[in-house]
Amino acid sequence: MARRARTPGGPSTLYSLNKARLSRGPDHILPGQNLRLRG
């Protein structure tokens, strides 16, 4: 997802930007969730 969205910093940055939304961890992204892709 991070690669496709060209998020600078890759998956670790994507998770950092969305920690509050991904309380169960980066492996629990649910359909319909809105995630920040850039800082």
From TrEMBL:
Residues 1-39 are annotated as: Disordered. This is Uncharacterized protein.
